[in-house]
């Protein structure tokens, strides 16, 4: 069977859109759509396999433990879905590896290896910074009941699980825990360039924020 790449991409997009259209934890369909667009742009500039990158970008959050009960089950469903569409076995395993290795999980994340994995990870990280990143951060904070900022807390790089449970962190604190670090974690030169202006925008936002709150910026 000769695989029709356009059809594979169309069918995958349709499936992901249906699965995530009502997602409220920051992994909604529009996040996926932005990551896909950015990933294709980076892939073209870096000479990565655009087909694999596009599929991995579309599928990258479908096995996240925040969304599904079992990561293993979700991965095996993705494998079956792609097999059914006639995607090459090697490409399928590559896509599954990308999905499992790229998520930012505290300090113990394995480094991603292939260029395609680096590209999709960069695109996902770019969506966590800049104006969109700020918006997502405050949305997430509202959802978990975390305050905008906590002047008694100061700025903390790492919170303990206990502190998280007691809701001691804040949206502003998340900038220091993660968002301001992301520009230096970009894998590709193209993503580093894209990250620079988004990072500067967050810096400007924080300047203005501390000015208006009359708190000392740490
Ligand atoms: P992804 O899996 O797409 O890398 P996450 O699931 O870690 O992202 O987070 C989804 C969004 O919510 C991101 O924009 C992230 O910055 C934000 N977010 C995650 N954890 C926190 C937190 N503790 N406080 C505020 N925002 C957060
Ligand atoms: Ni994502």
Describe this structure in words.
The chain is an all-alpha fold. It folds into two domains: 1-106, Cyclin A, domain 1; 128-218, Methane Monooxygenase Hydroxylase, Chain G, domain 1 (Up-down Bundle). It is built from ten helices and no strands. Helix 2 crosses helix 6, helix 3 crosses helix 6 (115-126) and helix 6 (115-126) packs parallel to helix 10 (189-213). The longest helix has 25 residues, at 189-213. The chain is globular. The N and C termini lie far apart (60 Å). The structure holds adenosine-5'-diphosphate (ADP) and nickel (II) ion (NI). Residues 27, 31, 35, 60-61, 124 line the site of nickel (II) ion (NI).
Envelope shape: globular
Query: What name goes with the CATH superfamily of the largest domain?
Result: HD-domain/PDEase-like
Uncertain runs? none
Helical residue percent band:
55-70%
Mean pLDDT: 90
Largest sheet: none
Give me the secondary-structure category.
mainly alpha
* Strand runs, count: 0
At CATH level 3, the topology of the largest domain is Cyclin A, domain 1
Strand content: under 5%
**Ligand types:** adenosine-5'-diphosphate, nickel (II) ion
CA radius of gyration = 18 Å
- The CATH architecture classification of the largest domain is Orthogonal Bundle
In short:
The chain has 218 residues and is an all-alpha fold. Helix content is 62%, strand content 0%.
How are the secondary structure elements laid out?
Layout: H1 5-20, H2 29-46, H3 50-59, H4 71-84, H5 89-101, H6 115-126, H7 130-144, H8 161-165, H9 171-177, H10 189-213
Helix pairs in contact: 1-3, 2-3, 2-6, 3-5, 3-6, 4-5, 5-6, 6-10
Bound molecules: adenosine-5'-diphosphate (ADP) and nickel (II) ion.
Protein name: HD domain-containing protein
Domain HD: 28-129
